[in-house]
Design a protein that fits this description.
Number of strands: 14
CATH class of the largest domain: Alpha Beta
Number of helices: 9
CATH topology of the largest domain: Nucleotidyltransferase, domain 5
Strand content: 15-25%
Strand order of the largest sheet: 3-2-1-4-7-6
Order of helices and strands: EEEHEEEEEEHEEEHHHHHEHEH
CATH superfamily of the largest domain: 2-keto-3-deoxy-galactonokinase, substrate binding domain
Number of domains: 2
Shape: globular
CATH architecture of the largest domain: 2-Layer Sandwich
């Protein structure tokens, strides 16, 4: 491969994704399941090299701009949080120590909120990318995922945000709780039923979750219906709880297309003006913006 301009990295808890960038275009892409959750600090550099070794020139140093859990306390290097309200990205990046002189790895800081206490890592880059692709946009960005976020944006700043454990709860309940005995597949009608239950009576969520098990035992509830209904209940309860964010606002749902569609359906039931956007495009745009800021700065990055 010819010498690259830089390498973009999205390093989460479960996955590592890398893109080789030349002349503003992605010329190669790779990924692995070596996320932060299974790595110790000395293992990060090798996990990255396993994916990008063939992209690196023998003599020159390549800039690597990374976002996500790589910058957490358990990550490669801790990138201090920035307090909201603020722009989604700052100008100073943390520098990850490397042995291989071909690498210059810089890490984007996450955001923090004191009251109520909340943090994000990685989503700030997606938000910055979305705003770069949609200049002048104000409203609420919903970022569904393992830990979904609802983020209030005004004048290009993150004003406040709220996190929900919805995705992780779905995984725990469907794979490790008593409900796991009757969970498999997907049924659209089951999701619609669960969504209606979660939206209408979120305070009854715990009771209705157990009803899934009881219906499986007494009424032979199909595993596909049970699993989809569980997802609908959890997403419905989240959207109902997030009403102070989306009420009277336009909402951009930024995430994996299948999951984004489920959230958009929930919001549509309240006639919320909602649009869906590709998270990969936003991530790359945000990483590009961070690289541009890094190249412009005069001061060295933090050690």
């Amino acid at each position: 491969m010819n010498s690259l301009d830089w390498i973009a990295v999205d390093w989460g808890t479960s996955h590592l994704r890398v893109w080789a960038i030349l002349d503003g275009r992605v010329v190669a892409h790779a990924q692995s399941d070596r996320g932060m959750g299974i790595l110790s600090r000395p293992q990060y550099e090798q996990a990255l090299l396993d994916l990008v070794h063939d992209w690196l020139p023998d003599a020159d140093t390549t800039l690597v701009v990374a976002c996500g859990m790589i910058g957490s306390r358990q990550g490669w290097v801790e990138a201090p949080y920035r307090a909201v309200p603020c722009m989604p990205q700052g100008t100073t990046l943390a520098h990850a120590p490397t042995v291989d002189k071909r690498l210059n790895v810089v890490v984007i800081s996450g955001l923090k909120q004191s009251m109520p206490a909340d943090v994000m890592r990685g989503e700030e880059t997606q938000i910055a990318g979305f705003l770069a692709l949609n200049p002048g946009w104000d409203g609420v960005i919903c970022l569904p995922g393992t830990h979904s976020k609802w983020v209030h944006i005004s004048a290009d700043e993150v004003v406040s945000f709220q996190t929900y454990l919805t995705g992780e709860l779905f995984q725990i309940l469907s794979d490790h709780s008593i409900l796991r005995h009757g969970m498999a597949g997907w049924d659209e009608a089951g999701f619609a039923d669960g969504l209606a239950q979660g939206l209408e009576r979120p305070e009854r969520l715990s009771s209705r979750l157990f009803s899934l098990r009881a219906e499986g035992l007494l009424n032979d509830l199909a595993p596909a219906t049970a699993r989809a209904r569980l997802s609908g209940m959890l997403i419905g309860a989240e959207v109902a709880a997030a009403k102070p964010y989306w009420l009277g606002q336009r909402v951009a749902v930024l995430g994996d297309s299948a999951l984004a569609d489920l959230y958009a359906r929930a919001l549509a039931s309240f006639s919320v003006p909602v649009t869906r956007h590709d998270v990969a495009d936003a991530t790359l745009a945000g990483l590009s913006a961070a690289r541009a800021a890094y190249l412009k700065q005069d001061q060295p990055c933090e050690n």
